[in-house]
Amino acid sequence: MKKSIVFATSVLSVIFMWSCAGSIEKKYKNTKEMIDDAKSKVEFVSAVQLKAAMDKGEKYYLIDCRETAEFDSACIKGAINIPRGLLESQVAEKAPLHRTTVYIYCSNGDRSTLAATVLPRLKYADVHVLEGGFDVLKAKFPDLVEIAPVRGESKTKAPAKASGGCGG
To answer: What pLDDT, in 10s, does the model give residues 137-162?
Structure first.
């Protein structure tokens, strides 16, 4: 009898600790509410602050989390393209040094704000979102914009022309 009480108590203790250890998942009414919540959890830098950091010559990662087609039309000079939907699977390969400062941007700041909430979970220690995104920086510092960048395999390829033969 004593063994069964000890066993039951142990099982209940494990179940209790396991149920309390899970993270609380917040529910949102819409995307705007999710983005607003994320904005309270990230650090922002202005276009002026980003330009100053770039001019200092310090080491940093500049991540463009827009889609590849957006990046291929224009980006901030020196940016790495990691689309938001691929961030978790590609960031460690493309930005391997977790203690290096990360500046992340998208077109208007919404996607990059959501992305910036994920990076600390992946052990990136110093993450900053470009306030207003690429659109604001492009208007303020057009000389920092690179048109049609080529970064290895990032350039979007046009679909192959059909051969016109059978099955083509």
So the answer is: 999 999 999 999 977 654 444 333 44
Burial class (CB in 10 A: 0-12, 13-18, 19+), 119: buried
**Angle, helix 110-118 to helix 31-39, in steps of 10 degrees:** 60
Determine the 3-state secondary structure of 152 from DSSP. Answer: coil
26: CB partners within 8 A, 6+ apart: 37
**What backbone torsions phi and psi does residue 61 show, to the nearest 5 degrees?**
-105, 135
Percent of the chain that is helix, strand, coil (3-state, to 5): 50, 15, 40
- Residue 80: how many CB atoms within 10 A of its CB? 19
What 3-state class would DSSP assign to 127? strand
Q: Per the confidence metrics, is the pTM higher than 0.85?
A: no
Q: How many other CB atoms are found less than 10 A from the CB of residue 142? A: 8
Q: Write the pLDDT tens digit of every residue in 78-110.
A: 999 999 999 999 999 999 999 999 999 999 999
Q: Which tokens go with 23?
A: 């993270």
Q: Which phi and psi angles does 80 have, rounded to 5°?
A: -105, 130
How far is 152 from 92, CA to CA, in rounded Å?
A: 17
